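User: Quick sanity check before I run a bigger batch. Here is a single chain. Can you write out its predicted 3D structure?
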Amino acid sequence: MIDDKDIIRIGTITRLHGKQGELQCRLQNDIWYDIDASFLIMRIDGLLVPFRISDWRDKNSECILLTLKGVTDETAALKLVNSEVYALRKDVKGSNTDEEPQLLWQDLKDYSLYNADRVLMGTIEHIDETTANIVAQTEEGYLFPLHEDLIIDINTEQRTIQLNLPDLRL
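Assistant: Done. Predicted structure follows.
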């Protein structure tokens, strides 16, 4: 059984491409290019379902086109539109299954965000990785830049992150 802690979000199936079952996937990050896998995982009706990759190609800098085994027509492909696409963490090049899994920006969702003075800025509700400037949005709607140079501390046990930022709230 595939567990949420074993997967990495890659993107979302946004639409069909042609009538032969090819799918367009909008990438959330650049992890796709570091994956050595023959399967993708999609969340369908709340379940994580594996699909074998038959072929893929770049469409542009934000999207790839996927052909999946068993998805050969419009009807089958339409059922996958708007599905979230994942890969197994173990399939990311350079990952070692004996070590603790590599922490990614998307893993910081639901972490408590503190500034340099340990003032709670909020709980991270969403991470936007669609541009070069990665941004965390708190439940209160505040946006904070995420960059390795700004990180003071990440505590995975307490699920907290401390950034070198002043208190910018009004």
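The first strand starts at residue 7 and ends at 16.

User: Great, the batch can go ahead then.
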